[in-house]
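Help! Submission page says 'invalid entity' but I think these are all valid:
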Amino acid sequence: MTRVATDILVVGGGAAGLSAALAASARAKVTVVDDNPLLGGQIWRAEMGKFNSPAAKGLVDAVNSGEIRVINNAQVFAAAARNTLLAETAEGRSEIEFEKLIIATGARERFLPFPGWTLPNVFGVGGLQALVKGGVPVAGKRVVVAGTGPLLLAVADYLRSKRASVVAIAEQTSASRLGGFAASLFRSPSKLVQAAALRAGLRGVPYSTDCWVSSAHGEKALEQVELKRKGRTSTIDCDILACGFNLVPNVELAVPLGCEITDGCVVVDKFQKTSIANVFCAGEPTGVAGVDSSLVEGRIAGLAAAGDQDGARSLFAKRDRARRFGEALNRAFALRDELKALADDDTIVCRCEDVAYGRLTEFENFRDAKLQTRCGMGPCQGRICGAATEFLFGWKPGSVRPPIFPVKMENL
Amino acid sequence: MTTFDAAIVGGGIVGAACADSLSAAGLSVCVIEASGVGSGTTAAGMGHIVVMDDSEAQFALTRYSQQLWHELVTELPTNAEFEICGTIWIATDSVEMSEVKRKQESYSEHGVESEILDESSLRTAEPNLREGLAGGLLVRSDSVVYQPVAARFLIDRAKRRGADVIVGKRVIEINGTGVKLADGEFIEAKNVVNAAGSAASDLSPGLKIVKRKGHLVITERYPNFARHQLVELGYLKSAHGKSADSVAFNVQPRSTGQVLLGSSRQFGAEDGEIDYAILRRMTSRAFEYMPLLRKLSAVRVWTGFRPATPDNLPYIGKMPAQDGIYVAAGHEGLGITTSLGTARLIADEILGRDSAISREPYSPGRDLIEH
């Protein structure tokens, strides 16, 4: 068991966490704890040890070269007290004591169940990108990218750069919503340039709006997906399906600390402070709004936690613009109701405990379903099925019990 | 307005069993559950159905209840995961081995078969126990059940016989004519059964039920890591200690392949937060018996509150001098096991029937008389 004491502890080494750590480090002793071998988080995940984004590289280098203590490969799994977190590392349990905490735990993908979604070679878009960055080859593979949001384009573009054959991009939102969103981008020209560049890179790839995967088929692994568009069904042969149905804030650490949560997001004030006095939160856990918002929220949280309220205040306008972009994004890519009707009675919803959709329809809330079927009681603690059942049935996710990630019994 | 034959306060396993027994006898029943059926202490427990020989009365009730569980098996749904896996009481040294022999004789006198295991047969039965343990006592007839499903099954069966089940409303007062809900509604009933577990004393002042906090850990799936419910012989010492916090080695193999690990006991701990100090005492105790447990991946830790009484026996029966008010509460860590027996005794008393075992040792009057 190791003990660490720090002024400011940042949990999460992605955009928000790095930005927060750097901002706070001018005035305080800062420690960043992250569960990956390298900093960068999800969106900036390094590829074979290298960062594709110059912004990512700059921030990671700045954090690594400063006075900031970085603890990699450490999974924070519980709050032992108001000022102590427990983490599991290769060396065992680590107890990290802090004066102030900045939660920058990011977001995860939402999966929605449809027949065949559990077949081998069906992935989340972000998950697939992470695998490919880790070295899994996709050259020559036929890939369907489906779901919603700009991430579909970004990942499709990336997969093409790895010589995958992207055979279709299915965007569930409507053409009119997408048009409205594109128009709003004129307020953020840099985003428009990014989007245009992505579309250019994806020239020749069939891109459909109002289109979604209704089922996936295959004997032992994925062979074919069925797409629905305007009442018509078409099938398309493919080797890989990458699905993304927006992101879900990771609030599992904020909850046991007692932070107020509304609509699945951590409630923060202007200084990114949560309802708990010494706990701040930045980035996607406060509401999914993209990397620019994460960066500026991180800076505000870092400055405010370190006592530089004026510095933090000077960034409010920038933060508010970034959040407005996030809100427009969420409206443009809100999930359509038809997606609630894709699962059959025997479509698995909870993969950990093999609980099918039909079984869940017997219950009125997540707690009863969980108690009776063990839905959400597996190693993922309902991270996947909780977000799905929230969308499918309107159920509030159940309580997360510690450890928030599985941990060796000896490290509890 | 309807007057029920019986209003049952609490939809845990004990209230559910009472609803089942009373509705089976033809009574009109209403169950009022504040939170969710089987969601309180019931859900927090292990679901070990075990015969305990720490007193004659405990033995009689656990044995009778176990027989009722065995009668129920064929009707339980498969997802109740009822499994007769047996219990092994583990002895670490020769002193504990002599206790094993005493225990075997005592079980035998009461008609419960058990086998003494020596060091090597214990290791054969449970290869993940450490070497050098003295032996143990295998009681084959003990079993485990996934208790939230069992509670729901009992409630659903009562519902099919016409029972009303009100979920999400709290009872704030009970008397001989019915129960009053927090929202002001009054439900009339000829008989009221207080099966509110650790909250039973709030509704029936005078009962000496206190909360006794426990921790449990469950792992990912490791099929056959353990094959029987494994309990250290010292468990009773832990269960019967009156003040100090205590831990005991108690492992249960779930039919899912998961390993469920207990147990801890704390008085005076009112909040449900994990207490990492006692949790680590509990896991360390377990590692002394099963070293490989250290490396298993724990997916969930939780706490629950056992409703404990001064003499470790539940309160079952009519409240003295309060016509129409019955108590079925205070089962400490044995509520799942003894729920079925409890429900029969309550039904017998309400209906004026004879019981299969003496009801007298469980009478709520035994503690009240001291006042």
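Support: the input was valid. A stray whitespace character was the problem, and the output above is from the cleaned input. The interface with chain B takes residues 78, 80, 86, 353, 365, 367-368, 371-374, 377-379, 381, 401-403, 406-410, 412 of chain A (CB under 8 Å).
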